[in-house]
Specification:
Length: 277
């Protein structure tokens, strides 16, 4: 059989040489701080009853449980794509139902944002194998796509404000949002999309980084894998808890919140992080 290996990927005798890797190349990216003011929080029937009878309500925590990211080509602007991000946030609320007593209930808020990023122009339709692609099991035929992929990185949302408003509006069956079942399972009970009960609104702040990538093959310098010199430390079952506690390093970084900020030179912003604006 003829040797079809590409000769340009030949290795030196010492194990060093050029190899080709398949990875995602970042074509465009952006960072943003979004303030979603007065976003409605969808509650269950039990949560609406607590909200209606409560004398005071506060938000205890907010957790990003899921995000849906979609990419669509921008018409008449070749190479640019609109990235739509929809955040699903679970909020934990505390309601004062009477003097000295409180109850906790949960809700779901839906936030959405759009950005425009350059995704390049690609004419190659990509397919890939999966673990269930057998010779006799073809499965469903799904056409590949040449659209780029969007990646969103974010931190937990920050609660900026909480409001309760009376609702005297007519019930509109079309006034609802699509919440996936996996998100609805985060709260106990069915969410009420339309009712005349008082409504809960929360303002959120979210920091995010969004980038758009495409598959790329790159040539990189590589070396053979080396066996680590460090030996594994066995996990011992010591009956003395103080001996185990003494082996844990002191968490110095957790106590640095009381340090004074660094002195900034004239015309410099952002401290030592190297970020200038």
């Amino acid at each position: 059989m003829q040797d079809t290996r590409n000769s340009q990927f030949s290795f030196c005798n010492d194990g060093r040489g050029t190899v080709c890797i398949d990875t995602d190349r970042v074509l465009d990216c952006c960072r943003d701080r979004d303030c979603f003011e007065d976003a409605r929080v969808y509650l269950t029937s039990a949560g609406e009853q607590l909200l209606e009878s409560a004398t005071n309500v506060r938000t205890k925590s907010a957790e990003l449980v899921w995000a849906h990211v979609s990419v669509h080509e921008v018409p008449f602007n070749q190479g640019f794509y609109q990235v739509t991000v929809r955040y699903y946030i679970k909020v934990e609320m505390e309601a004062c139902v009477c003097i000295g007593k409180s109850q906790t209930f949960y809700g779901i808020a839906v936030l959405e944002k759009d950005v425009i990023l350059y995704g390049g122009e690609g004419n190659v339709v990509s397919y890939s194998s999966t673990h269930d692609n057998d010779y006799c099991n073809i499965g469903s035929t799904i056409r590949g796509t040449n659209a780029p992929k969007a990646v969103v990185e974010t931190v937990e949302p920050i609660v900026l404000g909480t409001k309760v408003k009376e609702c005297h509006c007519a019930i509109n069956p079309c006034d609802c949002v699509d919440i996936p079942e996996c998100v609805c399972c985060c709260v106990n009970g069915e969410l009420n999309m339309n009712s005349n009960a008082p409504r809960l609104y929360i303002s959120f702040g979210i920091f995010s980084v969004i980038r758009i990538v495409r598959p790329a093959q790159l040539l990189v310098q590589a070396t053979d894998y080396s066996v680590p010199d460090k030996e594994c430390s066995p996990a011992t079952n010591n009956d003395n808890p103080c001996s185990l506690f003494n082996t844990i390093a002191f968490p110095v970084n957790q106590f640095r919140g009381t340090t004074t900020p660094p002195i900034q030179t004239q015309g410099e912003r952002g401290g030592n992080c190297g970020c200038k604006k």
